[in-house]
Design brief:
Structural class of chain A: alpha+beta
Largest sheet of chain B: 5 strands, parallel
Radius of gyration of chain B: 21 Å
Order of helices and strands of chain B: EHEHEHEHEHEEEEHEHHEE
Largest sheet of chain A: 5 strands, mixed
Shape of chain A: elongated
Helix content of chain B: 40-55%
Largest interface: A-B, 38 and 37 residues
Radius of gyration of chain A: 34 Å
Oligomer: heterodimer
Structural class of chain B: alpha/beta
Shape of chain B: elongated
Helix content of chain A: 55-70%
């Protein structure tokens, strides 16, 4: 609140008071009071009035600042009316009560929506766990039949599996802090798990994977990173060149460790690079090829953010794509 | 022969897994009565128990705790939260596999746990077949008194062929076998490696020891 705002707000009242004083002064002059006395009286009244106005200004300013401070400290700002002190004057009190009622109904809506979201998420997780049993059974049945059908079927099953896995991680990434555990892990283990998980897809697409210096130690949740690298491997196999090669390597950057996953695939146009981590963004490659959901990299980004892993992508059309994951140093993880 | 006990409530998975593991030359004990599981494990003393955590009406984790002193356990589950995993490993399972598992991955894990627990005879270091002697630790192949050094890829290829002497090994199977050993190669690289391997063997006076069966694969 500025002085100007305050004066404009009180302007009507100030003008009324001044007019009143002038009327009284005129009346006194007309009834024969000496003009000197009237002037003195006027000055005294105006001084007192100014003092009162200043006090009013300071008090209002202080109260507003207090309210602002309460608002700033609140995590959930819609709880403001529950925390703010009740005002004194009648109009404000009534308004405050009405606002509080409105706030209450808002809080109810919010908590209803939260509960619904939570229930839905739990159902998705539950469903994912349940669907895994029949997928496993189908994979095993598949393993014991003739090789041509097996190849085709297992490819489809891998796809189903990948979609289900994404659904699960999507549900989890809603409140990620609940579901990851930071542990000391060797990158070799993580990369090997990711490769083995997607080996059917990779082998059938004739992909060669080269690994280099993966014996670096990182502090992270292995399962989540395995999922992230899995998404990168799937993309590399999906948008491959004629002779696909994926190169995975790691290096130390001070106290951080950087993992690079580089492919020689068809690449991503420069103007699309900024949007690849957006939800549902499929780009030209995705549209041309079909079957792209635009969820894989979006989830990677969300999980990476939650674990404080830096995720960057460079790409040249016709040359390939390079994704780097920068793992935080151990000491920086304490706040999680 | 090693014995693997399968504790799994889904009948299709149980049957197919039994079939699969029998094909891999394990003796398989599928369990259908989960009430007396610890007793069954005690009397059968399997070399490994594949334990599904999601048994109906039973707490898989407490079963895990009850069995672990008797036999090594691989926990199989569709629950994949970090907490579940930690709990299973803390309770003393030897490994943790999540559904839906990759069959080659599952088989590799089974092998690894069996090897760790010493119930599998350590993989032979020296392989002999078709006049060749292969030393896995030295990475050399010897024939008629001459020795040649092999690269890691060549070594694995030759070892796999020698382990299946006389059989036709398809290129697909060979690639799968190499991927099992963390060598992630493609078809072309396989061809290049086989050619190099053949040249080395020729240098030892063993030309044509690896035959190409057109459209089928290689044969030693």
């Amino acid at each position: 609140m500025t002085v100007r705002e305050f004066i404009l707000d009180r302007l009507e009242r100030i003008l009324f008071h001044i007019a009143l004083l002038l009327v009284i002064a005129a009346f006194l002059l007309m009834t024969g009071t000496q003009s000197g006395i009237v002037t003195l009286l006027l000055i005294a009244c105006l001084l007192i009035y100014l003092l009162a106005l200043l006090t009013d200004y300071w008090r209002t300013k202080k109260q507003l600042n207090e309210l602002q401070a309460i608002m700033n400290e609140l995590d959930q700002r819609y709880l403001f009316t529950e925390c703010a002190p009740k005002p004194h004057d009648l109009y404000e009190r009534k308004l405050f009560d009405l606002l509080r009622l409105s706030g209450k109904s808002m809080i109810e809506s919010v908590s209803d929506a939260r509960a619904a979201g939570k229930e839905y998420r739990e159902y998705v997780e539950q469903w994912v766990h349940e669907i895994k049993t029949p997928i496993t059974a189908a994979k095993l049945v598949c393993e014991n039949i003739d090789s041509d059908t097996r190849r085709k079927l297992s490819q489809e099953l891998e796809q189903i599996d990948a979609h289900v896995e994404r659904a699960l991680f999507y549900a989890r990434s809603e409140n990620p802090e609940k579901d990851f555990i930071i542990r000391k892990t060797v990158l070799t283990t993580i990369c090997d798990r990711a490769i083995q998980t997607h080996r059917t897809l990779l082998i059938q697409n004739g992909v060669r994977v080269e690994t280099e210096n993966l014996d670096e130690i990182v502090y992270t949740d292995g399962k989540w990173v395995t999922f992230m690298i899995g998404q990168l491997l799937q993309n590399a196999a999906r948008y491959r060149s004629a002779e696909p090669v994926i190169m995975m390597s790691a290096k130390k950057l001070g106290r951080q460790v950087q993992l690079t996953v580089q492919d020689n695939g068809i690449g991503i146009p420069a103007h699309e690079l900024t949007r690849v981590f957006d939800r549902g963004f499929t780009g030209r490659n995705g549209r041309n090829r079909g079957g792209s959901t635009g969820m894989g990299l979006y989830l990677c980004k969300r999980l990476a953010d939650a674990m404080e892993i830096g995720l960057q992508m460079q790409s040249t059309v016709g040359k390939g794509t390079c994704v780097t994951l920068t793992f935080p140093a151990e000491m920086n993880l304490s706040k999680m | 022969m090693q014995t693997i006990m399968i504790v799994e409530d889904d009948p299709v998975i149980r049957e197919e897994l039994t079939f699969l593991l029998e094909n891999e030359n394990y003796q398989v004990l599928p369990v259908t009565d989960f009430e007396t599981l610890p007793e069954q494990v005690r009397s059968a003393t399997p070399d490994l128990v594949l334990l599904d955590l999601g048994l109906p009406g039973r707490d898989g984790l407490s079963l895990c705790a009850a069995i672990r002193k008797i036999a090594p356990i691989i926990v199989v589950t569709s629950r994949t939260s970090a907490l579940d995993e930690l709990r299973a490993l803390n309770l003393g399972s030897d490994d943790y596999v999540t559904k839906p598992y990759n069959i080659p991955v599952l088989l590799a894990r089974i092998k690894a746990v069996l090897r760790r627990n010493g119930s599998e005879s350590a993989e032979a270091d020296i392989l002999k077949a078709a006049g060749l002697t292969l030393s896995l630790t030295k990475g050399t192949v010897t024939a008629a008194g001459q020795t040649a050094e092999l690269t890691r890829n060549e070594l694995k290829i030759l070892a796999h062929l020698m382990a299946h002497t006389g059989e036709i090994v398809s290129r697909g199977d060979l690639i799968e076998a190499l991927w099992d050993s963390q060598i992630y190669i493609d078809d072309n690289t396989l061809s290049v490696n086989v050619t190099r391997l053949r040249n080395k063997l020729e240098g030892l006076g063993m030309p044509d020891v690896i035959k190409t069966r057109r459209g089928m694969g290689y044969q030693l």
